Amino acid sequence: MPQALDLAGRPLQDVPVLVADTGLDLQHPDLAPRLYALPSAVAAPSAEGAGGTVQAGRPGWDLIGTNAPGALAPDDDPDDPPGGSGHGTMVAGVLGAAWNNGVGGAGVAPNARFVALRTCWDGDECFQSVQAPAIDWAAARGARVASFSWLSGPLEDGLRDAIVSHPQTLFVTIPSGNGGAFDADGDDPQPCGLDAPNVLCVSTSAPDDGLDCGAFGPRSVDVAVPTRNNITTTNGGGFGPTSCATSFAAPTAAGVATILFGIDPSASPADVRAAIIDSARKVPAWAGKSTSGGIVDAAAAVTLFQQRRGIAPGNGGGGGAGDSQDRTKPSLTVGGGRVSRGFASFSVRVSEPGTVRFAIERRLSGRRASGRCRPATAANRRRPRCVRWAAQRTQSITFRDGTAGVGADAKTRKVRLAMKSSSGKRLPSGTYRVVVRATDAAGNRSATRTVTLR
């Protein structure tokens, strides 16, 4: 992403965005600085005519106000509920977590401003009757991008009208859950299937550019994005790694769209959508599997968008053969993985200076429901069994020039990770793995390496 920002020919303007989901952790250090603030008090959005007022300075509204579907009890606190899934917080972090603040990672778009509206319960319970007034309210506040990490089912008139009646907002949505690669065209996923110039449908790509856990479809899917092994925000002020999930695909592409709108706010959603699709990096696995046949390339999208808008490139040189920007991915070698006395030991070598991130994940069994592997409960005990990897803790270590572990021929560096959770508690017995990735000074990322602990 730094390469794409280097190519921006204008300073990015802040762009209001809507993540219609379970809410946002409003106190999170990576999200609080990026919240929208209402300039003056206005009527609150309402799905049932409940009324209410959003006061000046507030970021948004809770349209549902309860922890489970039922009678709505809207209020002025769009926080992601404590103890819940934190789905909205994670999705928002992918799109626009704060940059350069010394904590966590960074979202795709440093210029995103979150219009905070809580519209979904956990478990992908996102009623269309709630989404429509949320869209209307966010669009009236200037939201240029709306990210949906859920499927609506057959479109109701209210949601269809809300999308179509706001042609200045780009709606980024997904074709499926995470049940694996399949052709979604026959299912007519919605809102992906809505024939509108302001709808962009995004699926997942694997680290090797192949198909992954999301669906494909030359009529349904526009582009794919990689979603594994990044860092995002978690409820309660924490951070955790991302995985293969279409929930992370929508905000990734939405972040790229936010950057493009930040370069030129006068652009239409059709302009932004076309730049993202037409600049996608073509790969064999996606040929004939989507409209673009490729994977989102943020730098190429910025370059093409600016060419079409008559905007000169920034210091990155505009891409292409003459571009002097460093785009070489670092190579990473990881060995070891033995656990002894509460520590996991590794031998690590990276080809150039940078930061190496270690993400500890625990293997858990569950039941597949609504396209996801969820914790086993009495309600889903008859669903198929599945395996999921739950984030426990991440740790980043700097590898400096001239030190052990840096250089293609250098000796490996010994690294020890404490087997503790992000809260400092000792991890219980079980099966664990560590996902490792290196990032160099230019922002280039290595291929991921996964080590199963023993």
UniProtKB/TrEMBL annotation:
Q: Which Gene Ontology BP terms does the record give?
A: carbohydrate metabolic process; proteolysis
Q: Where is this region: Disordered?
A: 67-89, 310-336
Which Gene3D superfamilies does this chain map to?
Immunoglobulins (2.60.40.10), Peptidase S8/S53 domain (3.40.50.200)
Coiled-coil residues: none
- Where composition is biased (Gly residues), the residues are 313-322
Q: Which residues form the Peptidase S8/S53 domain?
A: 15-283
Top-level taxon in the UniProt lineage:
Bacteria
Under InterPro entries, the record lists: Ig-like_fold, Peptidase_S8/S53_dom, Peptidase_S8/S53_dom_sf, Peptidase_S8_His-AS, Peptidase_S8_subtilisin-like, Peptidase_S8_subtilisin-rel
Cell inner membrane: is it a keyword of this entry?
Answer: no
Pfam families (UniProt xref): Peptidase_S8
Instruction: List the Gene Ontology MF annotations in alphabetical order.
Output: serine-type endopeptidase activity
Active site: residue positions: D21, H87, S247
Q: Which UniProt keywords apply?
A: Hydrolase, Protease, Serine protease
Task: Kindly give the SUPFAM superfamilies that the UniProt entry links to this protein.
Answer: Subtilisin-like (SSF52743)
Name the family the entry cites: Belongs to the peptidase S8 family.
**Protein name according to UniProt:** Peptidase S8 and S53
